[in-house]
Design goal:
about 180 residues, 2 domains, 6-stranded antiparallel beta sheet
């Protein structure tokens, strides 16, 4: 069924495996629901928020023709990296959205919470929106997670994913050399 999450993991977390959840959704008109409707059915059945999203997305891929990484408003690429630098140094490396290490564009920042999140439009050739999360893992270690959303195709998604992975690897080297 799902190539990403095993049947055993789903059953352990939710009490049912993939086949049982798919049967449940089909019995409750899942093929006629959009993503929000599928999530609502699962939530009403007592499934936690994260698993609602996971099961609904997998059902959509398996039975409704949704592609991997496809969301209702386009495709989503994500990348993350843990860096041996403080959250403030890591956040500062984004230099108001126009740092030279960013992958072929800049962020037109619409929302910023210092050392926590940056959000905005992406000026690079794949377009879309960027959400960046900074999670301190101690005084001198930070996890940076980038979600690049509203991408127009699976090709743009794969291009963005590869670009962000390379950019975060570059950022890691740059920041860890300074420590």
């Amino acid at each position: 069924m799902s190539e990403d999450i095993s049947n055993t993991a789903v059953k352990k977390a939710t009490g049912k495996g993939w086949s049982a959840w798919f049967a449940f959704l089909k019995e409750n008109g899942g093929q006629q629901h959009d993503h929000k409707g599928l999530v609502a059915l699962l939530a009403d059945a007592g499934v936690s928020a994260w698993w609602c999203q996971t099961i609904a997305g997998t059902f959509e891929r398996e039975f409704l023709g949704r592609e991997k990484h496809e969301m209702p408003d386009g495709y989503q690429a994500s990348a993350s990296k843990t860096i041996n630098a403080s959250a403030s140094k890591t956040y500062a490396a984004f230099d108001n959205g126009a740092a030279d290490w960013l992958p072929g564009g800049s962020i037109e920042i619409s929302t910023a919470h210092k050392n926590k999140t940056l959000r905005g439009g992406w000026t690079g050739d794949v377009g879309g929106r960027i959400d960046i999360y900074f999670t301190a893992k101690g005084a001198s270690k930070t996890q940076v997670a980038v979600n690049h959303t509203k991408l127009v195709s699976s090709d743009a998604c794969e291009k963005a994913k590869a670009a962000w992975r390379a950019a975060l690897a570059d950022l890691k080297v740059r920041l860890e050399e300074k420590n």
